[in-house]
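ok so for the tutorial part 2 we go from a plain amino acid sequence to predicted structure tokens. step 1 is just haveing the sequence, like this:
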Amino acid sequence: MYIPEIEKKSQFEIKRFQESKLPELLEYLNTHSKFYQRFFNKHKIDIYKIKTLDDLRLIPTTSKYDLQTFNSDFLCVPAGKVIDYLTTSGTSGEPVVFAETENDLQRLAYNEYISFACATAEPSDIFQLMVTLDRRFMAGMAYYEGIRKLGAASVRVGPGNPGLQFDTIERIKPTALVTVPSFLLKLIEYAEKHNIDYRNCSVSKAVCIGESIRNDDLTLNTLGERIVEKWNIKLFSTYASTEMGTAFTDCQYGLGGHHHPEMIIVEFLDEDENPVPPGTPGEVTITTLGVEGMPLLRFKTGDICNHFIDPCPCGRKTTRLGPLIGRKNQMIKYKGTTLYPPALYDVLNDIGNVKNYIVHVSHNQIGTDDIEVRVGVKKICPDLEKEIKDKFRTKLRVAPSVVFYTPEEIACMQHPEMSRKPITFIDERE
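step 2 — the prediction. this is what the tokens look like for a chain of 430 residues:
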């Protein structure tokens, strides 16, 4: 299992390493980025006084609003040097265009190579990619290139179509899957319906993207438990975004996604933009290293996570990222209780009759948040609504309204035209 040398260093040595890279980044932004040139001038930032990671606090943060408003001004290279364009998914506002150079794509491949290696991948593995490589999607291409760099094989099946997925498993004998974890439940359901012996197939592990499979204490959540109860495969969670171009991936011990300090500087900030201690939720704020096309400085992702800094048994001493607690702009205030969508998902995943769902949030007539849970069920049992609401009250102390649909109707809502990911949260608040 390959571990970069810097990831085996102490937290102090990692900090020193990143501080050696910081002046190069600041000089690059000051020379090539129209946005950061204006930004430094507006805030009277002398980049030559920024020498340590602690000094970064002298620089104001940036946000998705800046990327959406001044998108093209973040580009640091002439158009002729760009070889790939992609966009963010748009789940938190208008999609943002990102431009990648050859060096950026090589960096992306290296990131996924060390991330897959973290998830115990070997050159002998065959990965079945249940993700799209088109629709301006960074992740699918990144996974493919990372697997190539690892020296492993990939099978590009794409999302959906359980029949084709199992046909591929039977024909090619992949050892690993890259997939949205809730799709594994659909595969299990399909296999049991069609008498497919999935438990004894070639697959031994799955790299899970887009959805959390762990609780705050890093144990498997309801979704993760439901998968492994049926299918005895090893699950690895991963957290990433287009903006950071970097992934935090579990190792075999499942103690949080490992930070790759050669790729990114990461901070965890409270509401007042002060750093939070390990084990306390904070907003993931990143500074990219080695990005040529559109590097970012103190960019607030909007994602709230815990982090941990004690060494991992795998040999890495890097910071580890806990599961996504929620997105800052998706926080819900409901009947005096603060909620994030993942807490609602975890309850719904624990109800066997619920096949799929969408959480819909809006403002009511008095300006407070309303939650409507749209649930896909094959048959509405007399007490099902009460069962669902009772589970919400037990876990979250409040019960949103519940509306029943067929699983097919919910599936259509989850996959609108051109959607790259299944939609489970609709926010119609102003």
